[in-house]
Design goal:
about 75% helix
Length: about 70
């Protein structure tokens, strides 16, 4: 798969979601949006809201831990 093809990443993401690979599927869909494939937003809103929320929160927590441990 071409990692710069938003439509291909969208299709692979959907296939992964259907096979139960939620994390990997949502990652592909988010990358598809980053590449300008806006249709992936529909699937993200249906399948990935919770995953994206947790990913964002984990990144914030990791940043805070990193800042605290460097002091």
């Amino acid at each position: 798969i071409n990692p710069n093809n938003g439509e291909a990443l969208n299709n692979r993401g959907l296939a992964k979601l259907r096979s139960g690979e939620k994390e990997s599927g949502c990652t592909d869909l988010n990358k598809a949006v980053d590449l300008g494939f806006e249709n992936a937003k529909i699937l993200i809103s249906q399948y990935c809201k919770w995953y994206n929320f947790l990913t964002e929160k984990n990144q914030i927590i990791d940043s805070v831990i990193s800042m605290l441990s460097s002091k």
